[in-house]
Structures are given as C-alpha cells and as structure tokens.
Design goal:
The radius of gyration is 23 Å and the shape is globular. It is of the alpha/beta class and about 450 residues long. Helix 6 crosses helix 8 and helix 10 packs parallel to helix 16. The chain has 16 helices and 15 strands. The longest helix is centred in the last third of the chain and has 23 residues.
Length: about 450
C-alpha cells in the first residue's frame, strides 16, 4: 500500500507499511500512479522511463515501497494489559467563562458545578501510582472547567504527588490547561516551576475569540486574557530550560479562514500553536460539515505557506498538527490504539468518579468506578482495547491509520453512536493535515 500526492513542487510517495517517505521525480510519480506502470510516451523519453523504473525497483528491493503491513495478530492492542499511566484530573467542574462550543457544558459536565476536594485529589494520585504497574513515567493533567478556580488544591496535590512518587520509584509529569483569566505572578511562578506542559486557551483574532468565548457576565474574553497569556509565555521562556507550552484554539464555521488566527497568535509572540476544529452534532450554526471540506483543505494549504514563510524569515512557529516524526514515531501498539483512553488513560471527576477520558465525564454508561473503591476493575478495558485500527472497518485500508490511530473515541460515539466508526469529517481533516505535515518535513529535507 502506498499513498501518492503532490505538495507544492514535490511529488510525495508514502509507503504505508514501512512509513518511508519519498520525494520523487514526475516520471516515478506518474508510473506509480498508473496501475499498469504505463505512462504517456510523448511526455517522457525512453531513457527517463527506464531510469524511473530502475529507481522504483530499487525501492521495492530495499523494502521501502509497497512493504507488507504489520500483521494484526502481532500488533493488536488486545494483546496488551490495561495498565494506567496517564490521568486527566478534573480540578474544577466549574468555569469562569461560558464558551458556546464547550463540550463540557461550559464546565459543568452535565452535572452540578463542583471543585475537586483535596482529599479526593490525593486519592487520585494514590490510585495512579498503584494502578500504573511497572510504568515509571506517569502523567497528570489538571483540567476543567477552569482548574485555576481551585488553585490552592492543585498546589497541594502537586506537592503531595512529588512526595508520594518517591516511594514508588516513579516520576509524575504534571500539566495544566487554563483559559488564563486567573493567571497572576504567583500562579505563573508555581506553574512554571512544576508543570511540564501548559495549554493556554485562546481562539485567535479578538472578534473571532469573543464571538464564542465569553466571560460569565457575557463579555468577550480576549481583552481579559490576551495580555496575561503573552506575559505567561514570556515568563515561561525565561525561567525554564524546556519551556513547553501551547496556545490552543478552536475554529468553527464562523472562522474557516483560521490561518489568519494562527498568524494573529504568532504575531503576539506565541511559538507553539494548536487550532482544532470544533466537534459537534452538526446542528449548531457554528458547526463544521463535510460540505466545508474543500474550503478547509485550501485553508490548511494557506497555513503551510505561512509556516514556510516564517521559517524563511527566521521567525518559525510550531503548529501542532503539522508535527510528525518521520524517523521512528511511536511503537506499533501506540499507532494502533492512539491515546489509550479507557485502558492507559483515564479521567477523574471532583466526586472521584473514573471515566475513560475527559470527554466521557458525566456519561454514566461509561463510568468505570471511583478512586475511593477498595478495588478497581476496568469493566470496559476490553471494549476500548478492541477499538483499534485493525478492528475498525473504516481504518483497515486507510493510508493514514498509523498516524491518526483510529481517531477520537468520544467523537466517534458522539457523531455515530459507535466507538468502532470514526467521525468522517475528523478523518478527512486529519488526512489533509498529515499530508501537509509530511510535505513540510520533506520540503525541509529537500531544500
């Protein structure tokens, strides 16, 4: 299996099985595009055709073209245990903003608004340390709602985790997602000392951000957060050797020209940027649909131009979905199962309830237990282990399967009511972003 496409002035050939990426001549590209390996004799001379076919034969011989796929019985995540290594810890089921597209019911997660008690947070840390088996490196992401509404408890939990991890010989990597409204010098100092990664939420241009992201009082949030987020990122760069952070926004049908929002964020000084399509039922006025795909594809092309232009000018940015590791990437188990929701990754609510991930929180059909339970048995572990690329009909023959890993379980369930049926709009956007990411990587190597 191979995937062929053109990116700027490059002819890209991706070998699905091996992951090898080739930037090839027009003749090689055209020959591979023709099933019978015949090309227009008027377009190429016999010598060029011979050289092209020789190059193709050498790639075949080297196992870098049309290489065999990994057998499902060797790579299936069903063969693995369900050892938990990452936790989304909901510090707050409440928020000081009311974003219209919020999947979490503007912070309430379809239940009562609440803050995580310190004791429950400590039990969650204990739970992760005990249920992580022989995993040494663990992750805890403080999430909401707005987690900084519960800043004092977060501080205590982090310090507790640092103390408890020693007895287990483990290391917890703490991260935090925030809208920035409550950031100040004290919180910035603590976060930059203890958090390995930080996600800062902002959508881009003021008018775009404020259309969907408002404070509780109904004001647009941009003027309240933009300066704080800029100062936080600058402090993080000054005070950390590895100042990892992302500004993360959402685009909707109201800003399908989202490359302008990426440019706006870049001009504010942010270097690490992520902009995600809103995931909805499709009934809202701001919902994206499959009819928008041509326009969105063209916008991702414009975004690659922006990325290349800034690189040429010596002021590069990192766009999250344009990052791809072509040298080795994750192991085949990770490629097959993705984020590990419901097996390696869980979410814990302020009540201590355990869910497969943060997007399932509040859906009692997917409640797995509670951190106060004497014994934890993940009753849905097998369900989520089976939801991998080898068992999803739409994924088995897809060229992007080893990169997207079958897509988001929650999006599949929300859109199609079935964990095994990926959301098609998400699939098409992911494939386009991957083509851009691989093309950018090839461009950097070839020029």
């Amino acid at each position: 299996m191979i995937h062929l496409y053109r990116f700027k002035d490059l002819n890209i050939v991706l070998d699905i099985g091996s992951g090898a990426v080739h930037a090839v001549s027009d003749a090689v590209f055209d020959i591979l595009s023709c099933r019978n390996n015949q090309v227009d004799e008027k377009k190429y001379s016999p010598e060029i055709v011979r050289e092209a076919k020789k190059e193709i034969e050498e790639l075949f011989a080297a196992g870098m073209l049309d290489s065999p796929d990994t057998p499902a019985d060797e790579a299936s995540p069903e063969r693995r245990g369900a050892v938990i290594k990452a936790m989304c810890l909901h510090a707050a089921h409440d928020c000081n903003m009311r974003c219209e597209y919020c999947f979490a019911d503007t912070g309430g997660f379809r239940g009562k608004r609440a803050l995580l008690p310190l004791e429950t947070g400590k039990r969650a840390i204990d739970f992760l340390l005990k249920e992580s088996g022989n995993r040494i490196n663990l992750e805890v992401d403080f999430f909401g709602g707005e987690p900084l509404m519960n800043y004092g408890v977060i501080k205590e939990i982090v310090l507790y985790g640092r103390e408890q991890e020693k007895g287990y010989g483990k290391n917890i990597r703490f991260t935090l997602t925030t809208n920035g409204l409550l950031l100040d010098d004290e919180k910035t100092e603590f976060i930059n000392e203890y958090m390995d990664n930080v996600i800062l939420s902002i959508d881009g241009r003021p008018e775009v951000n404020d259309r969907m992201r408002k404070t509780v009082s109904g004001e647009g949030a941009y003027d309240h957060i933009a300066g704080k987020l800029v100062r936080f990122a600058e402090a993080r760069k000054r005070n950390r050797a590895n100042p990892l952070y992302y500004v993360r926004g959402t685009y909707t049908a109201f800003n399908k020209d989202f490359s302008k929002d990426v440019l706006h964020l870049a001009n504010l000084g942010f270097k690490n940027i992520s902009l995600e399509p809103a995931v909805t039922s499709g009934e809202e006025p701001w919902a994206l649909t499959e009819a928008d795909l041509p326009e969105l594809f063209a916008e991702y092309d414009r975004l690659t131009d922006l990325v290349l232009d800034r690189e040429e000018k010596g002021d590069p940015i990192s766009f999250f979905h344009f990052k791809v590791d072509l040298d080795q990437g994750p192991c085949v188990f990770k490629r097959a199962s993705g984020c590990g929701a419901g097996t390696e990754y869980i979410a814990v609510t302020p009540e201590g309830d355990i869910y497969p991930c943060h997007q399932f929180a509040g859906d009692t059909d997917y409640r797995l237990g509670n951190v106060y339970d004497e014994r934890f048995e993940n009753r849905l572990a097998d369900v989520f282990r089976r939801a991998h690329i080898y068992s999803k009909e739409d994924c088995r023959s897809c060229w992007a399967k080893y990169y997207c890993s079958g897509g988001c379980h929650a999006a599949a369930l929300q859109t199609n009511g079935d964990l095994m049926k990926p959301r098609r709009l998400s699939c098409e956007l992911e494939k386009k972003r991957l083509e851009c990411a691989i093309g950018l990587a090839a461009k950097r190597v070839n020029y």
